[in-house]
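Marked as duplicate of an earlier ticket. Keeping the data here for the record.
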Amino acid sequence: MVNECVILADSPGALTELCGISTLERLLRTLQRCGIRRATVFSSTPDPVAKELARPSWARAQLSLTLRTREAGPVKLEQIVDIWPRNSAATSLLLVIPAGSVFDPRLLRVLASQEAPAVLVDSGARRPRLQTLIASAPDTARGKLCGPALLAYQWASAQNGLLEDALRNGVERSNLTALDVSAQPLYYVSMRRKLRPFWFPVPSPSNEKLAKHVLFDSIQKGTLDIPAWFHAPIETFLVSRLCKTRITPNQLTLLCNVVAWVVTILLATGHLAWGLGLALIVGVLDGLDGKQARLKVETTKSGRIEHWFDAFFEISWWIAIAWHFRVSGELPRAFDYLLLLLVAETVDGLAKASVYFTTGQVIDELGAFERFVRLVGGRRNVYVWILTIGFLLGAPAKAFVVMAWLQVATAIVHLPTAVGNFIRNRHRFSIRLRGLRRFAALASRQCRYGDIFRSRQAR
């Protein structure tokens, strides 16, 4: 896996702002998340580029940057050779990327993982709107030349002339592997949907709206429940405004959790109208942090903890509303239904976990029936809608009962799917289980050796 690259960054293309950040900043953040550790920024306009790089940015703080100046004009291959990292010359591969374009992280990851020189091309952008967006990219016999390339020192040092011409000739003469965007998998695991990997040069003013549409579409997860269908356009509208501010995903997460715990208090004290109203708002707020993080490439590993926060306040809602129904006398057996709900959620959670553990997919992605269950099955957003409808009809306690039995039905439907999946993929389960055991044993040994080392130091 390559961990070093050269970024071709010239103003104004590299500094064009799109959805709150420049294309150069977007590329740097993406490269950090692709495992790149060092980057040489090569520019014929060093002053404005240096100013951009000097801006504080926690989202790329782990990326070591060096700014190098070149002569104005098209990039020549010998210029790349002159700044080639000397500690890896003639052995390692070097990633060369233009900062005047936007790239799907999947494309950069797959290019950086190649073991031989390769060039990213696109032979299949057939949709008219996408063709308009990438029309300015150079053509080759294998398709549009996207820009990024993985080069070997020996090949690069033997070439002369413009970089673009060398890449085109290398692809057409099969000296360089043509890594075709159209041949990449459509299914995006983390987004739970099929999404063609995207890329496009800095858009002209007339194409800026189309470029933003591509980016906003790329941050929308698939396999939604019915309430989420209504939330999605509202979230996108809000994020299109938030992305131009300094508000971070973590701040949005904090806001969502504060409002969510206010909902708990309101439900427990019997203020159902206010509580359910805010719960509906939480349904929208809960999607903003993830979309903001994906749009501005501000994702972090710690962002996964947010799901645990969601689980805590979600359970607190059901406990609070059961408490209110029990104390008020509206549903004397409220805690029985609460227990039924929590047990069914636990069983359903285990079924989902077993599928994800063996296949790497959530259960809702396995087929059309499972996607239908996701639409109407037991989930927080669906529960809030059921409770709200029950409240408007004057029967919120009955809605709580319906909610509990819906979760039971969801668990019952998911169990056969999980069992069947386990039977079909039990070999994967055993392989993953052995891997976890080896990892746990290794971690245990490292901790033990660390304790021994620290005890020796203490002596």
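See parent ticket for discussion. The chain has 17 helices and 14 strands.
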